[in-house]
Design goal:
Length: 359
C-alpha cells in the first residue's frame, strides 16, 4: 500500500467541495457532485472517483462545462421526461433527473427519462441505487466519448457506454449491476498508466487495430484521435462475443443519445466547447407487476439460488453483482485509499485555486 495514501472521507469531501465552490459551482451542486465521486472511491471504483477532479476543473476553467447546472425540462408526461443539462455538471443533472424519475414512478408505477447536452456523470450505479431507498428498480445508462472500436473496426466510434440496474431485496444486499460495455473503461487504463503497469492485450488496440499492452500510447492515441482504442466486451474476436459488447454499447447510445435527440457515437465531444453527453434513467415500481414484498422475497431466493449453486473446482464463492463493491464501501466508510499520484494532482489543484490542503 506504499503507493497509496489513506485519507479521511470527511476531509476529502470538504476539500473537493471547496474546490468546486471556488470555481463557481453552487454549494448544493458541489455536494451532489462530490458525493458521487466519493461513492466511487468508497466502492473501490477509483477510476471514477476524485481522480476525475483534474478533468472537471479543467473543463470549468476552460469554459467547456458550465459550473451552474441549469436543468431544463423540454417535454414530460406522467411517465417520461426529456431534459437538457445545458452543458452543466453531469452528476448534478443525473441526480436531479433521477429524483424526478423516482417521484413519477412512485405515483405512476414507472418512469423513464433522457437527458441531453450533459457531461460525464460518474458511476452509473449511483443513480440506479437511488431507487433502492423506495423499493424501486433503478436503471441508469450513459453514452460517452468515442473510445471503443466496433467489432472488426480500428476507429473508435462508440463510448464505454456503461449501464447499471439496481434491484431491491428483503434481507440480502441489493443486486447492483454497474458495468461498462467495453472490456474496461478508460479510467482503468489511466490507473494502470499511473502505476506504470502494462495492460492485458485483450483490453485495447493501437492505431492499426492491433492488440497493445502500452497504456500510455493507447491513452495518447485516444486523446488525439490517432486511431485504435478500447475493445468492446468480448475483445476483438467475434468468436469470443465481441459483437455482443458492441451491440450493448450501441443500445446504450440509442437509449441515451438517439432517443433524446442529443449527440451519439463519434459526435460526442466533437464540439470542442461542449461534450454533448446524454443519459437515460428509469425507475420501476414492482407493485405494477407483482408486489414490492413479493418481489424482494423472490430477489432473496434468486440470489440464494445463484450463491448456493455448486462451485467450480478451486472456487469457494460465487459473487452477486454489487457484492464486492458493498464490502469495499463498508471497509471505506470513514477512510479511503487514494493513489499517491492522484493525491499529488489534488494538491496541485488545491494550490492552483487557493484551497488549503489538509492531507
Amino acid at each position: 500500500m506504499a503507493d497509496f495514501t489513506n485519507i479521511k472521507v470527511d476531509v476529502l469531501r470538504k476539500f473537493t467541495e471547496d474546490i468546486f465552490i471556488k470555481l463557481g459551482v453552487p454549494e448544493e451542486d458541489a455536494k451532489i457532485t462530490v458525493d458521487v465521486l466519493l461513492a466511487a472511491n468508497r466502492r473501490g471504483i477509483n477510476s471514477h472517483g476524485v481522480a476525475r477532479l483534474k478533468r472537471y476543473v479543467g473543463y470549468i476553467k476552460d469554459n467547456k462545462m458550465t459550473p451552474k447546472t441549469e436543468l431544463s425540462i423540454i417535454k414530460e408526461t406522467p411517465v417520461s421526461i426529456l431534459a437538457s443539462a445545458n452543458n452543466g455538471i453531469g452528476q448534478v443533472a443525473g441526480y436531479k433527473t433521477m429524483n424526478m424519475v423516482i417521484n413519477k414512478a412512485k405515483e405512476n408505477g414507472l418512469c423513464f427519462a433522457t437527458v441531453k447536452e450533459s457531461n460525464h456523470y460518474g458511476i452509473a450505479g449511483y443513480y440506479s441505487m437511488m431507487a433502492l431507498k423506495y423499493d424501486l428498480l433503478g436503471i441508469s445508462l450513459t453514452n460517452s466519448a468515442p473510445l471503443v472500436l466496433p467489432t472488426f473496426g480500428k476507429q473508435a466510434i462508440l463510448g464505454t457506454n456503461p449501464l447499471s440496474i439496481a434491484a431491491p431485496t428483503k434481507n440480502e444486499r441489493p443486486f447492483v449491476l454497474d458495468m461498462a460495455t467495453s472490456t474496461v473503461p478508460r479510467g482503468k487504463l489511466e490507473v494502470y498508466n499511473r502505476m506504470g503497469k502494462q495492460i492485458p492485450d485483450a483490453w485495447a488496440t493501437d492505431e492499426k487495430g492491433n492488440p497493445s499492452t502500452d497504456a500510455a500510447k493507447i491513452l495518447d492515441n485516444m486523446l488525439n484521435r490517432k486511431g485504435g482504442g478500447l475493445l468492446p466486451l468480448g475483445g476483438a474476436m467475434e468468436e469470443m462475443g465481441s459483437h455482443k459488447g458492441y451491440g450493448l454499447s450501441a443500445m446504450v447510445d440509442i437509449l441515451s443519445g438517439v432517443l433524446s435527440g442529443g449527440a451519439f457515437g463519434s459526435i460526442i465531444y466533437s464540439n470542442k466547447q461542449a461534450a454533448g453527453v446524454c443519459h437515460f434513467f428509469g425507475a420501476i415500481n414492482p407493485d405494477i407487476f407483482t408486489s414490492k414484498d413479493e418481489f424482494k422475497e423472490n430477489m432473496d431466493k434468486f440470489i440464494g439460488i445463484m450463491r448456493d449453486s455448486e462451485k467450480a473446482e478451486g472456487r469457494d464463492k460465487i459473487y452477486i453483482a454489487g457484492e464486492k463493491e458493498f464490502s469495499k464501501e463498508d471497509e471505506q466508510e470513514e477512510t479511503v485509499s487514494i493513489s499517491n499520484k492522484v493525491v499529488e494532482n489534488l494538491k496541485e489543484i488545491g494550490n492552483d485555486v487557493g484551497i488549503e490542503v489538509k492531507f
